[in-house]
């Protein structure tokens, strides 16, 4: 597969874009004309630079508003085209993209467009180039790839073929199966772009919201299957523009682009009949459980205090590093003070269990995810580690499930309560990591989603928006079908809310865990009384049950599948814990409670500094003497 | 007019929202239920707080998914509603907003919905409250305000009326004239929101893109005219949520909201028959010219050098301040070194000429725009000054036009070339400020647009998007009909490009200005050769003309109305100058050239630090010896 990428996908100058594409592993690029026009490099210099980088110049694009015009305009369009052909000759590019006319077309006629494209083909031939005609989704008359192909067929000139762009085809809901009806030699170019499902006008949708393959909602596997079965063997190129990539370093974007294209080819080869020739990468299935969550800080004592209150047990100190392990059942939390000077507690890593860890490592590595070096001593376990796009380190371990297995690395921890003891923890019934709530800046959000799905094998779950005091927080759950691994991923708002992530622990009796934790001095995140009045209004709960929830600041949700009880600890630096209990087949996360939680956290944040005294009721207590809630 | 605002419009806690609304001058608020639920204040405390602030609690909202349901669901909905009525009694709120059902409705029947609303009205009466039924634009069956009114009419209960929301009516394209057919006593509430013209699904459009009146594209003047003529005299409330306000300080948002509502009432009173009773503010028409542009810096010497090269003359030093004046014809640039320690050159202010400057000052002041204090001595002119939302200071002066008048304040500048001299400037033909290109962070963009239009009297011109190396830059021109004042306003991109603004000077012969400026040592912003190759391809210009443009780095545009020639100076700190010449009726700004300009600026920015040597051709010259272009 000859991989290519349009320079419009990347930020920076033309030479920076070409360097980035080559570095990421692309075989070629499409030259976006405005990038050339704004460049200081002459066409000859661009050509020489590409040769030095080993990069093919696959396409010159776009040439606009050519066909379907009056005879007078056609003459001017041919003149415009010839000037471009001369520039292409200097660049050494053999194919030009001609988009269907969006503004100056006056003739809604296949015959007229075909005749005019034939004229263009004759001119192109004379300059040794080929014309790839593409239907734009918002073309004035030609907005369907099947019509573009009919016109190309009618034009009947060897230098005139068609270009297929997944965005223009799938955004209109056109069936891509017709691609297989086009002779391969008449498909001159193929461009891929994904996009989220939006009902927006196609022009804005295209201009601002295209995504790389697998990051959006288009079925590009089926699309690419049709392309391969048509016999087309030319460049498979990415043409993706959105408001994010243009603001992101070109190197990172190019690496992400290449990874998504390789992952798409892999999936297509596996799932589409006749597409077996596409290159593949090792398969790893999906993770079967969470091995551990790592919290890092210069000093993790405050986190230990919370874990102790929640009923987890200290399992030992690592034999060679300042790293400590706490656990209850299959919920394992690693506290890492190594190389963490000045860092407040935060989620730094996550271990995932794969049945075939070698395959998983090979897959992640082949897809170009950067590795983390973990120093180990003789006799210590080697856990392959990588960095996710949003910065959390990912460790891969062999295992069948989190709750039953006893990871080999556990023996590296010494002087703690033996793994099979911890009766109290057993009582409390904390038994697993239910989910790990991560945040991503908006710039890396879609890339992180692809990392979790296309690389790690998780699936996309529900997507929601949660109201915080400072904006709507976009959230999407990435998970395994059975829920053994669940990662709700939130967009970090541009301003206001803090970068806070949290670990949710599953237990059998959340009220019992809360009761015992409070006996041990834990102060849960306070929940306003109005919340419980509202719970009553929404669900009509019994007074006894409501009182019990309120006494322990436990929140409640219910849907058609079951019920959900949960409470939050206060924040320790940039991390906090949630204890959850699922009843019936409840499969959500209490999304309605998230705004209450965010407001309560904001109140606690505002407390110490008394930011706007006049806007708040008078407070007499400072930071060290926290407000007491009447409930306990 | 009883002004109100929904708490969902503002950020922060409920008490912060209420404080901000009262401070901004609103008479009341709508309590958004989730704001109450997340609040620590009990309903009784909220009520007491509102009383202390002198704020009416006008509406409790929203109650969802009530009508059109099965009998069984109705019972549960009545139970849910009664719980809310009890909370409303504690708050002392008399009206609840009931939205048309978007999810659980199964009965598409006016009669069923009316009968169920009557049941609700009976229950509401018993609790002393009223029900305002509103058609949501995405209601399952009821999505038209006229149908909501039919149902209210059928329900025929004194406690059941309707709520009108401009967004739900205008986003569906429904004619608001029917509002006048509704008896005033059955309109229980009116909500206003503006929005940009987007073809997006109405739910996303509503949730993310509502704007305050006058900031978007809805005709709210006509809408409010219908409301007033219906006889309605209750609260006029703003219900506006978008991604920006939620992230902005509540005080600033509330002030902006109040200003837009007052400006809307003013315009409606003036333009709509029968709406004369609405409150007005002084009228000022629109500005007739640019008095001056002020550039501020600790040291403005580099700017003086550029102005000298461009043919402007030094007109004197201010008699009491470190401020200097340069001009040519009606183009006046004030260079201000007062209180500018550490500041690099930037556009700090702008003077606008109004025929009735007292009226203009009264208008700006009445609309609550913050003033700037200018210290003056005896005998010096008093120029009223205000701060625009994006930070530029605005000075108001009396005058008929920029080019012919001789402002009174000019006599405060001494020891310069007399105003009527400056032959060379006359030769060069620089005669006016053509436009002032300002930037705004995205958070204040819509507010700045409203400031320029609703407050200053400019009009909205075309809106475009310009590709920079680091993102699409949204741009909209604000101007007078005759073009005497033109302010293209760009969104400051989130990352990458610098905050740079520029002053465009109009001249009669841009090639002559460029030629003379280069003789005096000016180095214009370099334009790549490829740009001129592309010009040839696009416009088929003659070789002689192209060579002449290229020799002076002058750029070119043409449209159906005329031609445009212009060149840019290099950046001096955060400001640069553009020289423009308009031929025929060309009314644009050479938008196609902006990406070339941005790329050239980015190259110059990258030069001194040699950021990525490997990605660029080797350069042997450092910062102090700039690269020479072969053209000059």
UniProtKB/TrEMBL annotation, chains A, B:
What is the enzyme's main class? lyase
Cofactor entry: a divalent metal cation
Q: Which InterPro entries match?
A: DSD, Glyas_Bleomycin-R_OHBP_Dase, IolE/XylAMocC-like, Xyl_isomerase-like_sf, Xyl_isomerase-like_TIM-brl
The EC code for this enzyme is 4.2.1.118
Q: Which residues bind Mg(2+)?
A: 435, 502, 578
Recorded catalytic activity of this chain's protein: 3-dehydroshikimate = 3,4-dihydroxybenzoate + H2O
- Give the Xylose isomerase-like TIM barrel domain ranges: 19-249
Identify the keywords attached in UniProt to this record, alphabetized.
Answer: Carbohydrate metabolism, Lyase, Metal-binding
Record's superkingdom?
Bacteria
A UniProt-annotated Pfam family? AP_endonuc_2
Q: Which residues bind a divalent metal cation?
A: 134, 165, 191, 239
Per the record, the pathway is:
Aromatic compound metabolism; 3,4-dihydroxybenzoate biosynthesis
Q: Where is this region: Disordered?
A: 605-632
Q: Please give the HAMAP family that the UniProt record associates with this protein.
A: DSD
Q: Which PANTHER family match?
A: HYDROXYPYRUVATE ISOMERASE, XYLOSE ISOMERASE-LIKE TIM BARREL DOMAIN-CONTAINING PROTEIN
The UniProt function text for this chain reads: Catalyzes the conversion of 3-dehydroshikimate to protocatechuate (3,4-dihydroxybenzoate), a common intermediate of quinate and shikimate degradation pathways.
Please give the family membership noted in the entry. Belongs to the bacterial two-domain DSD family.
Name-wise, this protein is 3-dehydroshikimate dehydratase
In its UniProt entry, the species of origin is given as Nesterenkonia halobia
């Amino acid at each position: 597969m000859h991989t290519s990428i349009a320079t419009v996908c990347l930020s920076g100058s033309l030479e920076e874009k070409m360097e980035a594409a080559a570095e990421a592993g692309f075989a070629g690029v499409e030259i976006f004309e405005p990038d050339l026009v704004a460049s200081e490099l002459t066409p000859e210099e661009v050509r020489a630079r590409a040769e030095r980088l080993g990069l093919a110049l696959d396409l010159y694009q776009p040439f606009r508003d050519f066909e379907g015009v009056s005879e007078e305009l056609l003459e001017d369009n041919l003149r415009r085209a010839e000037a471009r052909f001369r520039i292409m000759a200097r660049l050494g590019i053999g194919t030009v993209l001609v988009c269907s006319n969006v503004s100056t077309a006056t003739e809604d006629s296949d015959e007229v467009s075909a005749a005019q494209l034939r004229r263009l083909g004759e001119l192109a031939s004379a300059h040794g180039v080929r014309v790839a005609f593409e239907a734009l989704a918002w073309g004035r008359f030609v907005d369907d790839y099947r019509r573009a192909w009919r016109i190309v067929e009618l034009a009947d000139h060897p230098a005139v073929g068609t270009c297929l762009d997944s965005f223009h085809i799938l955004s209109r809901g056109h069936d891509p199966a017709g691609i297989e009806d086009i002779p391969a030699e008449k498909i001159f170019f193929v461009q891929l772009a994904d996009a989220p499902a939006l009902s927006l006008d196609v022009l804005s949708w295209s201009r601002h919201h295209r995504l790389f393959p697998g990051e959006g909602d288009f079925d590009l596997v089926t699309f690419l299957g049709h392309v391969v079965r048509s016999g087309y063997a030319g460049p498979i190129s990415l043409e993706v523009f959105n408001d994010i990539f243009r603001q992101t370093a070109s190197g990172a974007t190019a690496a992400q682009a290449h990874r998504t294209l390789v992952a798409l080819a892999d999936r297509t080869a596996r799932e589409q009949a006749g597409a077996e020739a596409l290159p593949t990468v090792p398969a790893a299935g999906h993770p079967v459980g969470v091995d551990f969550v790592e919290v890092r800080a210069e000093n993790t004592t405050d986190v230990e205090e919370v874990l102790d209150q929640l009923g987890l047990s200290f399992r030992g100190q690592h034999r060679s590093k300042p790293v400590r392990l706490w656990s209850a059942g299959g919920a394992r939390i690693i506290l890492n003070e190594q190389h963490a000077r000045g860092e407040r507690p935060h989620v730094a890593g996550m271990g995932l269990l794969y049945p075939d860890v070698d395959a998983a490592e090979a897959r992640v590595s082949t897809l170009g995810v950067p590795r983390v070096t973990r120093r180990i001593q003789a006799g210590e376990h080697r856990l392959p580690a990588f960095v996710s796009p949003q910065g959390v380190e990912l460790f891969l371990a062999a295992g069948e499930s989190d709750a039953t297995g006893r990871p080999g690395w556990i023996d590296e921890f010494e002087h703690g309560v033996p793994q099979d003891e911890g009766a109290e923890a057993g009582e409390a019934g904390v038994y697993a990591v239910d989910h790990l709530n991560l945040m991503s800046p908006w710039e890396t959000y879609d890339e992180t989603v692809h990392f979790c799905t296309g690389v790690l094998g998780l699936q996309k779950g529900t997507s929601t928006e949660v109201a915080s005091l400072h904006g709507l927080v976009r959230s999407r759950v990435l998970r395994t079908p059975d829920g053994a691994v669940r990662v709700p991923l939130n967009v970090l708002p541009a301003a206001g809310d803090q970068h806070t992530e949290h670990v949710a622990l599953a237990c059998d009796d959340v009220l019992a865990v809360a009761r015992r934790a409070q006996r041990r001095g834990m102060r849960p995140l306070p929940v306003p009384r109005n919340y419980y009045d509202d719970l009553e209004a929404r669900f009509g709960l019994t007074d006894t049950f409501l009182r019990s929830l309120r006494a322990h600041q436990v929140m409640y949700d219910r849907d058609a599948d079951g019920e959900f009880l949960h409470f939050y600890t206060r924040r320790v630096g940039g991390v906090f814990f949630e204890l959850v209990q699922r009843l019936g087949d409840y499969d959500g996360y209490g999304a309605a409670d998230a705004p209450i939680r965010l407001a309560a956290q904001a109140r606690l944040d505002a407390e110490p500094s008394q930011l706007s005294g006049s806007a708040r009721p008078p407070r007499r207590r400072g930071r060290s003497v926290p407000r007491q809630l009447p409930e306990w």
